[in-house]
Design goal:
Number of strands: 9
Order of helices and strands: EHEHEHEHEHEEHEHEHH
Bound molecules: NADP nicotinamide-adenine-dinucleotide phosphate
Helix content: 40-55%
CATH architecture: 3-Layer(aba) Sandwich
CATH class: Alpha Beta
CATH topology: Rossmann fold
Length: 253
């Protein structure tokens, strides 16, 4: 059985990845992972590929072992793994709830690491891993300190893992979009720390661009010229200046 596995499939970018994969590729099953089971079930009616909903809270990395047990039982070949589950806790670092901060770091960085690690034994030459990074991956981000750091981790992990996996013919790509209109915003912006957004993109646009970039075997997928320009600029400017500009844009100290 040849499958695709997509986390964060119940909403936003992950759900759009399910639709894009379903439109463009054929698998015996697409395994969709998130906490909200009913949202995952709905995908069954909307997709042509058979969908297997797997309800898991990935912020508890122990739960990745349940996915691993399923792999051991079914022994599928994983053609594509997309790690899109993620969340953000925005606001002053010292004022944010520690449990929430740790939960976001576990979900964004550690669960993604574990998903890659337990999936790799089931991947062959030609398979691919797509990890959701962010535009926040390229710089330290005050008032999103843990989120930005977790996304830098994802970017560096993806690049290093991709380099190692070249020998096995497995491609790894990190998706680093700017601002995307999804539920993420309501979940993360509890205390109005994002006041300036240059441009919103749609989650469908991110998935579409990523699928195109995956075919071209890009290692990083960035949607939109303004975001690409910003990434280039950030590489040349001193880190302190980049953080000062960010704070000034957001109207914070
Ligand atoms: N939106 C943006 O502006 C933006 C920009 C750059 C990068 N990103 C990244 O893109 C990815 C997707 O974000 P999004 O905007 O699509 O967010 P979203 O609409 O909030 O969707 C997040 C997805 O992750 C799942 N998820 C959240 N917590 C989970 C947990 N503990 N266990 C398992 N699944 C969990 C959610 O499903 P359940 O709630 O059903 O579990 C949902 O399917 C994230 O990694 C995010 O950091 C987003």
């Amino acid at each position: 059985m040849r499958i695709a596995v997509i986390t964060g499939a119940s909403a936003g970018i992950g759900r759009e990845f399910v639709y894009a994969v379903d439109r463009e590729l054929r698998f015996d099953e697409i395994w969709v992972i998130a906490r909200r089971e009913e949202r995952l079930q709905e995908l069954r009616e909307k997709c042509r590929n058979p969908i297997r909903p797997i309800s898991l809270d990935l912020s508890d990395t122990e739960n990745v072992k349940r996915y691993q047990a399923l792999l051991e039982q079914e022994k599928p070949e994983i053609g594509l793994l997309i790690n899109a589950a993620g969340c953000g806790v925005f606001g002053p670092f010292e004022e944010k709830d520690l449990d929430k901060l740790l939960m976001s770091a576990r979900l964004n960085a550690l669960a993604l690491t574990a998903m890659c690690h337990v999936s790799l034994p089931y991947m062959k030459e030609g398979a691919a891993i797509v990890n959701m990074g962010s535009n926040s991956a390229w710089q330290p981000v005050p008032y999103q300190a843990v989120y930005g750091a977790s996304k830098s981790y994802v970017l560096n992990l993806s690049r290093a893992m991709g380099r190692e996996l070249k020998t096995r013919g497995i491609h790894v790509m990190c998706v680093c979009p700017g601002w995307i209109k999804t539920e993420f915003q309501q979940n993360a912006h509890h205390d109005d720390y994002i006041r300036y957004v240059d441009r919103w993109y749609g989650p469908d646009e991110v998935a579409e661009q990523a699928m195109k970039d995956l075919k071209k075997k890009k290692t990083v997928s960035i949607l939109g010229h303004p975001v690409r320009r910003q990434v280039r600029l950030v590489k040349f400017l001193p880190v302190k200046l980049v953080m000062d500009i960010w704070c000034k844009q957001q109207g914070i100290q």
